[in-house]
Amino acid sequence: MQREQLADFLRRRREAIRPAEVGIAEGTRRRTRGLRREEVAMLTGMSVDYVVRLEQGRSSQPSAQLLVALARTLRLSDDERDHLFHLAGHRPPPADGTARLARAGLVRMLDLLGDTPALVLSDLGEVLAQNRASALIGHLTGFRDDRRYMIYRWFTDPDVRAVCPPEDQEHAARGMVADLRAAAGRRAGDPTVAGLVERLRAASADFRALWEEHEVAVRRADRKTLLHPRVGPLRLDCETLVTPDQRQQLLVLTPADAETRERMELLRVLGSEEFPTGTADHGGR
What we know:
This is Helix-turn-helix domain-containing protein. By secondary structure, this protein is α+β, with helices and mostly antiparallel strands. The chain has two domains: about 5-90, lambda repressor-like DNA-binding domains (434 Repressor (Amino-terminal Domain), Orthogonal Bundle); about 105-280, Beta-Lactamase. Helices cover about 45% and strands about 10% of the residues. It has 13 helices and five strands. The chain has helices at about 5-15, 35-45, 50-55, 65-75, 80-85, 95-100, 105-110, 150-155, 160, 165-185, 190-205, 205-210, 260-270; strands spanning about 120, 125-130, 220-230, 230-240, 250-255. Strands 2-1-5-4-3 form a five-stranded antiparallel β-sheet. β4 and β5 form a beta hairpin. α2 crosses α3. The radius of gyration is 20 Å and the shape is globular. About 35% of the residues are buried.
């Protein structure tokens, strides 16, 4: 671990970020250049004391999970993120692991979308990052193990399917299975994909039946209805932008009608209400 270099790098990157880039009002009395340490702590989910110790070269070795959070907060590029890992004494994630970290450019796009809900997903349907607006329809980045994949939650947890109208559930299920088929074809021989498919086949007869139909389709634009527990149905247009390597996707959700727009405005006033198990990441299919 290169403590002095790590401290210098973090301090300079903190000073280079404008508060508005991370949704913080600058105000008229701000004297600190860039973000304050307490703002980095708040956005990253760590203590202010640990931020201070990191910047003074007095900290213990940060975990890889904490480095990922810091990279997101400081809006590091992919190269800067790898550099952060090296300075902290960690190897940057390998090719497969990198797909689980939202690309820096996509994270910046989340910021620019402002009040428009948007998420970054892996090609296996794991939500890697989401903007504050998307929290109105669920916090979707805290799942572990197979539950981090929307398709696994969909086929193993009835509460997930319940927020989709019954008449739409088969279409949503077919879309997710077809998208996983496309990913499995692109990533032939990848144990991560093969393992997920096998565990799904063992866990769900419905998945097995749809998988055997061998339908293939990549996430595209679609329209979905989500049954929100506080304001009722939300009809959303779902636009999916796919990176050139097809490993990550930016999903943008916009109201499909005036009534949904009014309900989403009401949610902003009321504050976020998380779905029972998270649902919005099926919206691209």
